[in-house]
Design a protein that fits this description.
The complex is a heterodimer of chains A (85) and B (487). Chain A has 85 residues and is mainly α. Helix content of chain A is 49%, strand content 7%. The chains are: A mainly alpha (85), B alpha/beta (487).
Chain lengths: 85, 487
């Protein structure tokens, strides 16, 4: 099982990625203090993108790839995965 | 033979008012704090420690923008965090409305309490009466509705023996209680009634402010509620209407009304419906009114506590809008610009924005950059970011701008510039329907009337899936533009 995020910026992506790895850092929900250690990726990361039908990806995510700061998001995701591994 | 009473006329937005009630003592009863404090009672102390004073809430730059003392773009130039950098000229009243302290708002709730369910302590009532007597929007008849209050012992008795909801001020002092409306009806328990009463009271203040500001008060013929509260008893929970209850206390004796329910985008649906009723010649003056969302108080408080911030969701926000016939001056609601998210549109962000922004502009032959300002979900990012919800308006603006990139109307590198010019910082309390586009309507009216802006687009989205009846989203939009004066 992996978790795929669609958060709109690096900060919120990092919070949700931490939530499903080390536990909810905002202590706002049921996963506060619970380390699930799940592999987590963002929908705009290449590892996920290459597994989706290009036509469907373009229709559902294509515009958001332009809208979002995907490099910053990817860096945040890599950081969380590194720290939780 | 069927015939129209009058030829079709363009609908205009004649006026708008906003109201904020600073209610720190009620934060504990917002849905999230109430659930969390029930599980972990020690949290209440932390919540109480992080509540703001009225002075701090009134001076808070986003609130000053909300009531019209700052233009939203001014927030670009105020250092963040905004709660640490209030302007020196923060006032209780602004061009579009006011922010009211909690004790006075308890009084307004009592004035709106037709069934005598709200009991306020007699000493508090005396203090509040003195304060409200000086309020320009309240009359001696209102003050009489306050009554004389009840002894503290009676409130304690009601709380302990009849499960009335205890009400506190910011200092955790018991100031009153709200009783249930029926012995067995779960739709009339105090926890539901306080949401409805707060919505009615805040809606009344917004509508009174708007009517008070008009040179000539027209006869209001129809009221459209657009709040998120659910009024009704056990047989029609949420199926009731608050619009007439608000109009009743604002002198709208010639009006009937109904409520539009569409989650956060209800105000935009309601403005479009109001404009259509006016254009069709059915009514000349229609009010759209929405009270505050009590359940959303303290919604992100966990994130605020974690960041050692004040709990910023400590206000109820309300709005009242007057839609009328073309007067040759007021900005026009372009009924040929309506964008709508259809059942078959798909729920991705790009599909929604395409339906709400791109399609209507294509219909009008406009490019995206020809809209001066876009008003979208105007959530204050200082509230949402600490809880991991991101900067909502910024994401929306980037999405809109990306369509301009995709269509070859702009380079991707110009996205940030697009946001600065055609967007604005989020400045609304996270009050759901109130935050959705309409916080900018007052500013747009002012700028368009002054000839400093040609048009503005208002778009709002609704999360229909929250009710667990469909996976669908919703959305609605319209373009407001300068009146050519020849209507």
């Amino acid at each position: 099982m992996i978790v795929v995020l669609g958060s709109p910026d690096a900060d919120s992506a990092e919070i949700y990625a931490e939530t499903v790895t080390k536990g909810d850092p905002s202590y706002a929900g049921a996963l506060a203090g619970i380390e699930l250690g799940l592999p987590v990726y963002h929908i705009t990361e290449p590892e996920i993108k290459e597994q989706v039908d290009p036509e469907v990806y373009q229709e559902q995510v294509g515009l958001m790839e332009i809208a979002l700061e995907v490099d910053k998001i990817a860096a945040a995701m890599r950081k969380v995965r590194r720290l939780s591994s | 033979m069927y015939s129209f009473a009058s030829p079709r006329v363009a609908p205009v937005v004649k006026d708008i008012a906003y109201f904020l009630a600073h209610v720190p003592g009620m934060v504990r009863y917002g849905s999230k704090p109430f659930r969390e404090i029930s599980k972990e009672p020690a949290l209440l102390v932390k919540v109480l420690e992080r509540l703001r004073s009225f002075e701090a809430a009134a001076a808070y730059p986003p609130h000053q923008a909300f009531i019209g003392n700052l233009y939203p773009d001014d927030l670009w130039h105020i250092e963040t965090p905004w709660y640490r950098n209030p302007p020196s000229n923060g006032h209780r009243r602004g061009l579009f409305g006011e922010i009211m302290p909690e004790e006075e708002f308890y009084g307004v709730m009592k004035i709106c309490d037709d069934f005598d369910l709200l009991l306020l302590e007699e000493g508090i009532v005396k203090e509040v009466a003195l304060l409200l007597e000086r309020h320009p929007l309240l009359s001696s008849q209102d003050i009489r509705r306050l009554g004389s209050g009840v002894p503290q012992s009676r409130i304690e008795e009601k709380v302990h023996e009849e499960k009335a909801l205890p009400l506190y001020d910011q200092r955790n002092r018991l100031v009153g209680c709200l009783q249930r409306g029926h012995e067995e009806d779960q739709s009339l328990i105090p926890e539901v009634l306080i949401e409805n009463l707060a919505a009615r009271a805040s809606g009344v203040m917004a509508l009174r402010f708007m009517l008070h500001g008009l040179a000539t008060v027209p006869q209001i013929e129809y009221l459209l509620g657009c709040g998120e509260e659910a009024v009704g008893d056990r047989y029609n929970r949420g199926g009731g209407s608050l619009s007439k209850a608000i109009g009743e206390l604002c002198g709208c004796t010639a009006a009937t009304g109904s409520d539009v329910k569409a989650f956060c985008c209800a105000p935009i649906h309601a403005i479009v419906l109001a404009g259509s009723l006016v254009a069709a010649g059915i009514f000349k003056n229609v009010v759209v009114v929405g009270g505050g969302s009590f359940a959303k108080l303290g919604m992100k408080f966990r994130g605020h506590l974690r960041h050692d911030m004040p709990i910023l969701e400590d206000v109820l926000a309300a709005v009242a809008i007057l839609v009328g016939r073309d007067d040759g001056v007021s900005p026009v609601i372009r009924l040929d610009s309506i964008g709508k998210h259809d059942v078959g549109s798909g729920s991705s962000q790009q599909a929604i924005i395409e339906k709400l922004v791109v399609e209507p502009l294509d219909r009008l032959g406009l490019k995206l950059a020809q809209v001066n300002k876009y008003a979208t979900e105007m959530h204050n990012p200082e509230i949402t970011e600490p809880a991991g919800s991101g900067n909502v308006p910024r994401t929306n603006y980037r999405t809109i701008g990306s369509f301009a990139v995709l269509r070859g109307e702009m380079e991707r590198g110009d996205l940030d510039h697009f946001i600065k010019v055609h967007g604005m910082p989020g400045f609304s309390p996270t009050q759901g329907h109130i935050a959705s586009a309409i916080p900018f309507l007052g500013h747009a009216l002012t700028k368009i009337r002054a000839g400093q802006m040609a048009n503005a687009m208002f778009l709002a989205k609704g999360s229909l899936f929250l009710g667990r009846m469909t996976q669908l989203s919703d959305g609605m939009s319209f373009l407001l533009e300068r009146n050519s004066g020849d209507g």
